[in-house]
Structures are given as structure tokens and as C-alpha cells.
Amino acid sequence: MSSALEQLRERLSKIKDLENASAILEWDQETHMPAAGVEARSRQVSTLRQMAHELFCEDTTADLLAKAKPENDLDKDLLRVVKHDFDHATRLPADLVGEFSRVTSMAREGWKEGKANNDFSAFEPHLAAVLDCNLRKAEALGYEDEPYDALLDEFEPGMKTSEVTSVFEALRKDLVDLVGQIAKEPVIDESILTRYYPEKAQWDLGVRVMSEIGYDFDRGRQDRSAHPFSTTFSVTDSRVTTHLNKHHFNPAFFGSLHEAGHAMYEQGVDPALDGTPLQDGTSLGMHESQSRLWENLVGRSRPFWDHYFPLVQRYFPAALSGVSEGEFYRAVNAVRPSLIRIEADEVTYNLHIMARFELERAMLSGEVKPAQLPEAWNARMRDYLGVAPDTDSEGCLQDIHWSLGAFGYFPTYALGNLMSAQLWSAMERDLGSLEDLVANGEFSPLLGWLRQNVHRHGRRKTATQILEATYGSGLDAGPWMAYARKKFGDLYDVAA
Amino acid sequence: MSSALEQLRERLSKIKDLENASAILEWDQETHMPAAGVEARSRQVSTLRQMAHELFCEDTTADLLAKAKPENDLDKDLLRVVKHDFDHATRLPADLVGEFSRVTSMAREGWKEGKANNDFSAFEPHLAAVLDCNLRKAEALGYEDEPYDALLDEFEPGMKTSEVTSVFEALRKDLVDLVGQIAKEPVIDESILTRYYPEKAQWDLGVRVMSEIGYDFDRGRQDRSAHPFSTTFSVTDSRVTTHLNKHHFNPAFFGSLHEAGHAMYEQGVDPALDGTPLQDGTSLGMHESQSRLWENLVGRSRPFWDHYFPLVQRYFPAALSGVSEGEFYRAVNAVRPSLIRIEADEVTYNLHIMARFELERAMLSGEVKPAQLPEAWNARMRDYLGVAPDTDSEGCLQDIHWSLGAFGYFPTYALGNLMSAQLWSAMERDLGSLEDLVANGEFSPLLGWLRQNVHRHGRRKTATQILEATYGSGLDAGPWMAYARKKFGDLYDVAA
Q: pLDDT for A19-49, tens place per residue?
């Protein structure tokens, strides 16, 4: 008779196989599946996800968890993480899960209608219902200080709302000030980037640069999809997708660096964790730190373009002949306060996120009623970015996520940015000048450091533990703000 | 509380989802998966297949089967087929399943070694063990006349060995005679087919012709793989793969027609059966009848090339300029007795299959001992084809299948050929001259007839029932032999 721990491991391995199989089905759906296959595919994915959930939530899992005797640190980490997941999965009553699904299903339709017709009132009652469900969910999951804690914990395990709030508050002041100063300076010409960039050359360049920064194509691949994403089926199979726009250089190139950053995280997880619940990246914020590090701190840096601009010019001789490296570098870093989060630049992006975080908390606390959302949204856009939408479709209705019920999710984007700069600063302390390495195209020391200090741990360490062990303390906006001040201060010639 | 029938349907739907999901994982493995992913993928597929098997074999399934009250003919068909599957799945004792797996796993290694070194003795003891396992399997499954019945039933449900034997016996005499006559005639020059055929043009032509015969790319797709295959995930998603050889016209072109034939069968199943155990083609023989009908009766016919040769010449101007349609038609139909089944022409292929069928039966009955296999094999090759291998690697060791434990599987290839001609003759009775339709590129009446009479039934009717309802009786070699005699008699100018 095998031990409780062995039985638990076997059960968890089955569940992980079901989850990874679902991910394969979903990847196929986004990349290769004939359109007519969608109905059958939805049923197949739903069956696998449901079986995984049911298998996990059975009493047997609780029994095995109670009886399992850890024999080493890895076992201890496994049991801790699985207990956390089990509590989370079993605390939500079935009727709430059902209602959440019904409410968000209707909310999605209400949101679509509202956005299409610029009619917030079509979404408002659904938003109220979604908020109510989220509050009940938070109560069921439990929290210490405020309901938002329970929701945030789903995406950023162990992070407290108070911590995020205090870090964001300080950052916001500095950032609004920087954006305001930049707004007074001449606009950077970005038109170079919207010339004709043939798709094949974009694809080939992307694959080449992804390989050179360290994405392992022997354990992954790239496909096309409507929206780029990365997905993982095992430590040995972590894939990315891209979307090519032949009239815009940025989406495919920076998107590829971004998705490769996510996928390299998953490729770097200790193989011993493969097929266990510890296999994945530890949080959405830490995951985003990896994508943003390669996309921005590396990919939008001056040394990166010192190294790559001549090559890129060879890939696109028509679009880039006569363009200087400096012009190109400025273009890919242009700051332009806009209404649309998903197209926002490196500096203003965080303000979009903070506005959403503040509004989520205010709606959950009842401080902002659903009916007041458009006004509250517009006020923040004006205050933070100096722009305001003409319509709610461009404003508080722009993102689908709230209609999906996802509260507590948005802040992880900004957390990722902040963490990326904290890790960068720790890496620089350990490796010396990163600028020189990047300028020479030597990325393996960077990737090696990330593997050693971040990737290999999988879910064994929380984001905060990783930051403490590398940077020396938990979440801190200082390094990112210093980075932004220096980079964009130079670029716009402002003493930010 | 839902009825027993509803509960059973729900359970079967889950199982089918797991099986279809496994098929997606396997398709990905053969087409797109990075090589390093194989170990994790094997685990994932094995978990899904095992869960499907366990869920099906639980006592609950038997209880529901016993209690379910059919409300219509569809329900009756479902219950009949599921009872058959359940009996089959639960009759094999777990220790035999385990031993079968161990024995074939070792046999595969023994076969590889034997084939690589032309050393039959390396495989001989494994063959004996595989035979023993198959005999025990047949006993567990049960049979009326001889053990082979039980094994054949796995691939060709309801077909009796005696039926196959008597049909094959008569066919063999006629066929050996035809092959003997052809062997005396001048050899047809096939060198046209091994000129340079650019891969892109092969791909484009294949997709075009597959579309034109009726393969629905809105509910399917084509990818590359090392070995061509077709696979189905739902009635709305049935895919094919191809393998391109730039120095040979045949593999991709006729392979595409062949795989499209299989996939069109699955695309033609009644959507009401989707996601149930009735969704698939009814037997391997009937499946092969569909692929061979499009590959050979259509794709290697004179009217087909009357219609397509000018187009194909435009796709390959370098290879085919100055080539006449007649030369091309003769080349794609050249008969050349050879040692290798997978490269065999339309006429000799059946003899390869019959030899294997006879040897399988003789080995199971003890008439041919494993040690006598090489001699028995070579004798048949000489008698049937007039050629004999110099080595066992080219002889009885050429195929992997026996080492995998697959006994009862080979005959379905020849059954498919025979059935294709029976269906063709019924179709001609109903539709009038098929030659005219094919010569005009009008394939939709043919496909429509097959959908109506074969495809839509899925597993609701057996192959024999389909033949009886269309052709008027069960398995019959007459139509195929008459077809071969006419076609190859004309081609080689022999009065066969």
C-alpha cells in the first residue's frame, strides 16, 4: 500500500494532466481549429476542467492532505500550496459558483450591448450583480482586512490590498507628475513604426530574437492567433502565439518578447515540479514581471537597439532605410497619454491599472455605486492622464474583464512592472552592468539569473519571498520609478 | 431525478469527450509538438485514456445499461453498441491487460532488433508470447467457431472468420492468376512519377482536389506529419495529415485522397450522434472502403484523369510537359509485384493482406509454429506474387503490427477494398454512369450517396448491414474482382 503522500501525488498528477490537456485543447482552439469545431470543443474543455475540479474537491483529497507526511522541503511546499488551493476550491458553495456563472454570462451580453451602443445603462444592473457575487465570494473565501484581499489572493497569492494600496499611492503621485511634464514636451514622431513591415520578415525576425534572448524552440513553438498569448503544457512544452500587423512594427515584435518572457518563465521551472501543482509560475504579478522585463527593460532599452537596430534594418530595408537608431529608439518609447489601456505606453500603462484598482475597491466598498462608475472613471482619466473619453465605450466599458467577474486581477499588471524593476536592480547588483551585456547581445547571464532566482522555484516560493530573497524586501515601487524617471527624463529632456 | 437513459448518456458523453481530447493530444504530438514534449505528453494521453476506460468499466455503467429504457430506434442502437463495448471492455481480466502490455512492449524491442539485424531469432520468442496473449485474450472475449473470431471482432464487429476465409479463398485464385498474367507483359514505365514535384504545388493541388471531391475544410484541416493519418474530434472537426516527397508524385496526392476519404466518412456522420459512442465509422473495413473508394475507384480511374490531368500538368509544368494523359494514367496504375506491402499497387496489395491473414490464423491454431514463420512467409510470397525476400527483414519482419499484438487487424485492409467495389456497384445502380460524373468533376452525387447510405449511420449499422441494404448481400469479392479484371485487363492487354 502506497503512503498517503504517494497517493496524493498520484491524484494531483492526474488532475494536472487533465488541466494541461484542457490547455492543449484551448491552444488548438485559438490557433488551428476549424471554426465549426467550437461547440464540440467547448463541451470537451468543460468536461475536462470539471473532472479536474471534481477530482480535486473530493473528500479523499482532504483525507490524504491530512494524513500525508512530508519527507523533505519539497513535500512541505507541495502540501502548503495544495492546502491553499484546496481551501480555495472547496470554500465556494456550489450555488454561488452556479450563480457566478449565470450572472457573468448575462453580464457579458449586457457589456457587449452597452459597449456597442455606448449605453452604460445596459451594463449597469449586471455590474451591480457581478459586484454582489464578488462580495459573496470574498465572504466565502474569507479575508482579514477587506473583501478585496480575498479576490486579489486568487491572482497574487499572499499579497495584501493594503500593501498594494500604499505602494500605488506613492507611485501615482510621481507618475502623474512625470506624465504631466512629458505632456508639455514636443510629441515624438512614431510614424516610422506604421510603415509597411512584411509579415514574413516580422515572423523571421521575431523567431530569431526570441531564440537569441533564450526562448527554447526545442521545448516550445510559435503560432498565429487573433490575440497573442502564451500557454504551457509541461516544462518541456511551453508555447507562444503572435499576431502580425503588416502596417505596424510593434505588436508582433514587442508582443513576441513579452510572450517569450512568460514562456521562458515556464520553461525555467525545475523539471522535478513538472506535472505537479507546483509547476506553474507563482503569481500573475511575478509572471508579468518576466514578460515586462524582456519586453521593456531589455527590449525597449537603448543598449538593446544599439545591438539590434542594424539587424532589424536589414530585415526591413524599405521601411527603415535612412532611419537612425536614435529615431527608432525614441519612436518605440514614445509616451502618449491615451484612453486605451491595451495600447498604452510604458509610462502611462500603470496609471490605467491604478485607476481600475481604485475603482474596483471603491465599488466593492460601496463608495462608488455602479451608476457613478462613468463619472468616477472619467475623473480619474482626466486627473491621471489629462485626457477623458467622449463615450463610455471608450471609457469604463472598454475592457471585458469586469463583465467576466474578474475583480482583483487588474493590479497584477502594474505589480509585474514594479517587480520587474526590483528584479532588475537585484540582477544588476549580482551581475554588474546589464547595459553592457544587453548591448553585446549576451542574454544568457540574465536568463541564467532569472532561472536560478525566480523560474526554478515554480510555486514553491511566493512573489514576495522571491523579492525578499533577491531584492531584499517585498513590493517596492522605488526601482521602477527611478528607472522611468531616468529613461523618460532623458528621452524627453525633463527633470522628472 | 433524470432517467437511467439520461444518466447513461451523460456518462457516455463525458467518456467520449475524454477520448476525443486524447485524440487532439495525439494529433498535436504528430503534427506540431516540440520533440522534447513527448514524455509529458505520453503521460497526459495515458491519464485521459485510462480515466475514460475506468469511467466506462465502473459498475454504474452496467447498472444504467440494465435499467435504461429505450424510447426510440436511436436509443436501441445506442444501447446495443454500448453493451457490446461494455462486454468487450470488462471481459478482459486486469492481469491479462497488464501482461499484454508488458509482452508487447518487449516484443516491440525484439522486433526492432530482429529487423535491424535481419535476425528472426531475436523476435521469435516474443512472437510466441504475443500469440499466447492473443489466445488468452480470445478465450476471455469468447467466440463461437475459432479464436480468430474474437480478435477480428475488435476491428470488424460482427464479421466471422469463416466468412472472410471463404471470400478470400476464391479471390486469391483469381488474383494470383491475374498477377501471373500481368507479370508476363511489358513493365509500365513509372519514371514520370519520380521527377521533381515542388512541395508547395503538391500541397496546393492536394488541398484543391480534396475540396473538390467534398472534404469540408470548414470542418477540418490538413497538416504535415511523418506518416499520413486522419483523426476526428467531432463531426465538425475531422482532420487529415500528409507527407510530401518532392521526388515522388504519388504519396501526397493519393495519400490525400485516401485520408480525405476517411475524414469525409467522419464528417458525414449524423450530427445527432456527435459526442456519443455512435459517432465513429462502424468498422475498420468500412472505413477503409471509404478511403480506397476515393483513392482508387475514383482517383486512379481513367475518367478522373480525363478531368484532372490538364490541371495537374499546369501545377507541374516542368515534370509533366510533353507527358500524355495516357502515359500518366498507366504510370499511376502500374502493377509491380514487390516485397513491401506499404508500397504495393492496387492489384497485389490484397495478396499481401491475404498472406498475413492466413499466417495469423495458422499461427493461432498452432499449424505454423513461430520458428516456421519465415519459411511459411516466403513460400506465400513466391506462390502469390512470384517474388521472395532475400532477408527476413524484408519478409516476415517488415511490419511492426504483430509485435504490437495486433492480430485480426490486417484483413480489414482487403475487406475495405472489396467493400468499396460493392458500394460502387450499388451506387452505379442508383446513380447511373459514375464514369460520366467523375469525368465531369461532379463528385457531389457520389458523396451524397455515401453520406445517405453509409456515413450518416455512424456505428448504428454494421458494415454487413450497410452492404446488405445497399449492395443486396454481405461481403462479396465479385465486384472488386470484376473491376480489377476489367481495369487491369485493359491496361495490360490481358484476357484476365
A: 999 999 999 999 999 999 999 999 999 999 9
pLDDT of residue B94: 86
The pLDDT of residue A137 is above 70: yes
Is residue A496's pLDDT more than 60? no
Please answer whether residues B411 and B341 qualify as being in contact, where contact means their C-beta atoms are separated by less than 8 angstroms: no
- Quote the ipTM score: 0.91
Cell numbers that stand for A163 in this block: 500593501
Question: Given A36, A44, A51, which is nearest B20 (Cβ)?
Answer: A44
Rounded Cα distance between B484 and A337, Å, is 76
Sheet holding A237-242, edge to edge: A222-224, A237-242, A230-234
What are the phi and psi torsion angles at B238 (to 5°)?
-125, 115
Grid coordinates representing B249 are 508524385
Which chain B residues are Cβ-neighbours of A20 within 8 angstroms? 40, 44
Q: In Å, how far is B176's CA from the nearest CA of chain A?
A: 46
B220 and B358 belong to one structural domain? yes
Q: In this model, does residue A1 exceed pLDDT 80? A: no
Closest alpha carbon within chain B to A220: B34
Band (A94; pLDDT cuts 50, 70, 90): confident
> Alpha-carbon distance A22 to A41, whole Å?
10
Closest C-alpha to B279, from B115, B74, B89 = B74
| Percent above pLDDT 90 for chain B | 97
Residues of A whose CB is below 8 A from B28: 24, 28
The last residue of one of the domains, among B74, B90, B106, is B90
* Distance from C-alpha of A250 to C-alpha of A227, rounded to nearest angstrom: 14
Q: Is the dihedral of CA B472, B477, B483, B485 positive or negative?
A: negative
Whether residue A103 is contained in a domain is answered as: no
> A80: Cβ–Cβ under 8 A, 6 or more apart, which residues?
none
Residue B212 counted as domain residue: yes
Q: Give the model confidence (pLDDT) of A242-292 as tens digits.
A: 999 999 999 999 999 999 999 999 999 999 999 999 999 999 999 999 999
Asked if the structure places residue A137 within a domain, the reply is no
Give the whole-angstrom CA distance, residue A234 versus residue B38: 10
Residues 6+ apart with CB under 8 A from A117: none
With contacts defined as CB-CB under 8 Å, which chain B residues touch A11? none
Cell 495490360, residue?
B492
Does the pLDDT value for residue B185 go beyond 70?
Answer: yes
**Closest C-alpha among A336, A9, A405 to residue A190:** A336
- CATH code (residue A326): 1.10.1370.30
Quick one: closest CA in B to A273, which residue?
Answer: B40
> A243 near A225, Cβ under 8 Å?
yes
Which residue range(s) make up the domain with B57? 1-90
Chain B residue closest in CA terms to A16: B44
Residue A186 sits in the same domain as residue A53:
no
Residue A394 is predicted with a pLDDT of 95
B44 with A21: Cβ contact below 8 A: yes
The order of strands in the sheet holding B230-234 is B222-224, B237-242, B230-234
Whole-number CA gyration radius for chain B: 23
Same domain, B70 and B219: no
User: What is the distance in angstroms between the Cα of A466 and the nearest Cα belonging to chain B?
Assistant: 27
pLDDT of residue B496: 58
Secondary structure class of A292 (helix, strand, coil): helix
Q: Which residues of A touch B223 (CB under 8 A)?
A: 32
| A30 is an active site residue | no
Considering the domain boundaries, does residue A233 fall inside one? yes
Please give the Cα distance from B93 to B91 (Å, whole number).
6
Q: Do A32 and B219 touch (CB under 8 A)?
A: no
**Nearest-neighbour CA in chain B from A301: distance (Å):** 31
Instruction: Examine the fold and report which residue of A91, A121, A136 is the final residue of a domain before the chain moves on.
Output: A91
* Rounded CA Rg of chain A: 23
Task: Answer yes or no: do B153 and B26 share one domain.
Answer: no
